[in-house]
Write a structure and sequence with these properties.
With 180 residues, the chain is mainly α. Helix content is 69%, strand content 2%. Belongs to the cytochrome b561 family.
């Protein structure tokens, strides 16, 4: 079962969820390492890795949105206020995982250096060369990652709590269905 249905997450959505989740954890750790450094020749590769994996995350998020327009995922279980909160949190995570890599790309382009990913592809310069754009975009990049971290703690806590309450929420994201 590759596609989603009203009560199950298909394989593609589950692979996208866990693949992007893994990437996001790596990206947050890499980013926090970079924020303690001064850019130089010795650590240029780390910046390159962060930018490459960040653009990969952005591409996978776009693929995820297209996939979910084609085959919508099941609604959060339970209904009522809890389901509305879950849905709101999911939408906010989607928005952040677009805005964070975009602000990183804009800030990097604004420095005037080429943004090269995977040592191979030069991305279009999507911002004018400008210290103001650079400063604003990276301030946003930093602030939004803090919001993302807080939301992800909430997200994981809620998933674990609901699984312990026994409604099968976590099982559904791992195995597809809440119960056999
Ligand atoms: C999901 C994707 C991404 C995440 C989660 C992420 C996360 C982070 C974090 C947590 C920081 C440290 C912020 C701070 O404390 O100052 C950071 C810094 C940085 N990010 Fe990202 N990032 C992502 C994508 C990107 C992309 C796509 C680019 C560029 C193409 C990029 C370029 C940078 C740069 C250059 C820095 C260092 C900024 C500085 O020196 O102040 N990031 N990122
Ligand atoms: C760390 C990065 C993570 C991100 C960015 C993330 C993002 C998301 C998003 C956007 C959804 C909405 C469903 C969709 O559109 O695919 C979702 C659902 C879900 N996530 Fe995560 N997630 C992460 C980590 C985790 C972890 C570690 C767990 C387990 C503890 C988890 C458990 C779940 C579950 C159970 C659902 C399904 C909720 C439902 O049925 O309504 N997620 N996640």
């Amino acid at each position: 079962m590759l596609k989603n249905s009203a009560d199950r997450f298909g394989l593609i959505s589950r692979l996208l969820h866990w693949g992007i989740a893994g990437l996001v954890v790596v990206m947050l750790s890499l980013g926090l390492r970079l924020s303690d450094m001064e850019p130089g020749l010795a650590n240029l590769w780390l910046y390159g890795l962060h930018k490459s994996l960040g653009i990969l995350t952005l591409s996978l998020m776009l693929a995820r949105i297209l996939w979910h327009l084609y085959t919508p995922p099941p609604r959060p279980m339970g209904g009522g206020r809890q389901a509305i909160m879950a849905r709101t949190a999911h939408l906010a995570i989607y928005a952040l995982l677009l805005a964070i890599p975009l602000s990183g790309w804009i800030g990097s382009a604004a420095t005037g250096l080429d943004v090269v990913i995977f040592d191979r592809w030069t991305l279009p310069a999507i911002a004018p060369i400008s210290p103001l754009w650079e400063e604003t975009a990276f301030t946003l990049h930093d602030a939004l990652t803090k919001v993302l971290i807080a939301l992800l703690f909430l997200h994981m806590g809620a998933a674990l709590k609901r699984e312990m309450d026994g409604d099968g929420t976590l099982r559904r994201m791992v195995l597809g269905r809440a119960r056999d």
